C-alpha cells in the first residue's frame, strides 16, 4: 500500500476490534498502491527486479508515504515509480489482484471500487491491454465471489500521458462494461496536466454508460 498504517487506535483495543468487525464500503483503492510489501520482496527476488532494499522494513520508505515524508501529492505519486516495475508476468498481475481483494475482505469491506491503470501494468512487459484487463477482471471477480465481497473495477488513465492513450483506456472500459468494469478515472499529477484535454473522452464514456471520476 502507498501509505504506512499508523496506529492511532491500538490494535489490541476493543475500539479497533469493533471497527474491524463493522461492515464497510471503500470507494477509492488503487490496485497498484495496495501491493503487500512481502509480495513485493518475493516477486523482486523471483524476477531479479532491482530494489533499494530486499526486506520489508528497508523497502517501506521507498514505496509507502511514511511519517518522515513531506505531506505532498508529488511525494505520494513518487512511490508508484517502484511499484509499477513489478507487473512482469501474468501470474504476478493475478496474484496482486487476488491479494488486494483478500485484504479488503479481511477488513470486512463489503463493497469496493478498485481502480487501476491497465496501460501502466501492460507497459512493464508490453502485454496486450485486453489480456491485462482480462487477467485483472477474472481474478478480481473470482476472488470477490469466493469471499462474498462486491468489487467494481475503475479503469484509470494518467493525466501526464497522451489523450490517445486515454482514449484507448476508455474504449477498453466500454468493452468490459457490465463485466466487472463500472467507471473510468483520470488520475495522476494535476500540476501542469489539466483535465480539459480529456473532456471528450469522458463525455463519450458517460454516454456509453460508464461512471466517471476525476
If you had to describe this structure to a student in words, what would you say it looks like?
With 214 residues, this protein is of the alpha/beta class. It has a domain at 26-34 and 87-213: Metal-dependent hydrolases (TIM Barrel), CATH 3.20.20.140. It is 47% helix and 16% strand. The chain is built from ten helices and five strands, in the order αβαααααβααβαβαβ. It has helices spanning 14-21, 37-47, 56-63, 73-78, 80-83, 90-106, 118-123, 129-147, 163-175, 199-207, and strands at residues 24-30, 109-116, 150-158, 181-187, 211-213. A five-stranded parallel sheet has the order 1-2-3-4-5. Helix 6 (90-106) runs parallel beside helix 8 and helix 9 (163-175) runs parallel beside helix 10 (199-207). The longest helix is centred in the middle third of the chain and has 19 residues, at 129-147. The protein is globular, with a radius of gyration of 17 Å. The model has no long low-confidence stretch (mean pLDDT 92).
